[in-house]
Design goal:
The chain is mainly β. The chain has one domain (about 1-60). Helices cover about 10% and strands about 45% of the residues. It has one helix at about 40-45, and strands at about 1-5, 10, 20, 25-30, 35-40, 50-55, 60. The mean pLDDT is about 85.
């Protein structure tokens, strides 16, 4: 399962190992063992967990799988 979140407390990206700033968006992925993994936008885009979608308003980032 994928969940888009906003950093409020201390959150670390498991891809690049950096701390996310307050208000920064990130995604939580449940892996095969049921462990939650957190990725910043940059890492989630490079791993394929997020993608840009073109809508009327412009480019929107989505955490849903590509169809």
């Amino acid at each position: 399962m994928r969940r888009g979140c906003i950093a409020v407390g201390e959150v670390r990206c498991e891809g690049c190992q950096r701390h996310l700033e307050h208000g920064e968006r990130y995604v939580i992925i449940d892996d095969e063992q049921g462990k939650e993994r957190r990725f910043c936008i940059k890492c989630s885009l490079s791993c394929g967990y997020a993608s840009y979608k073109v809508e009327k308003e412009g480019h929107v980032i989505t955490f849903f799988p590509k169809e």
